[in-house]
Amino acid sequence: AGPFDAYKGKMKDGMYEYKMEMDMGPMPGMPKGMGKQNRTFQHCVTAKDIEQGGIGSDKGGKMPDNCEIKDFKMSGNTSSYTMECKGENAMKADNRITFVSDGFKMDMKMAMTRNGQVMNMTQQMEGKYIGPCK
Fold it and tell me: Residue 73 — pLDDT band, cuts 50, 70, 90?
């Protein structure tokens, strides 16, 4: 049993269309606005992805070995938690996911350390169920 067991019954497995907006803020040496990205993609979410909390990724549900989930809370259809990763590319992400009738909405604030510099990033994602996986 893990913290994401609370997601069972909150969403169903199947094909989802994701709309993601990411803002990495000002990036040294890059033109203004380059740190913003929008992306739309489709991903097949399995029951295992839901169990492991991998619903907000197109890379599968497995969390990296050097990461840990902390302060997981589930209230109604909304969860919040912090993911902390240690090591060379240390990172801390505060996540809030709200399940809606046909998917979910997620907000994330993340601080990553790369080459000794801290990069702050925000991400909003919406996942909408579009049918069974093909």
Answer: very high
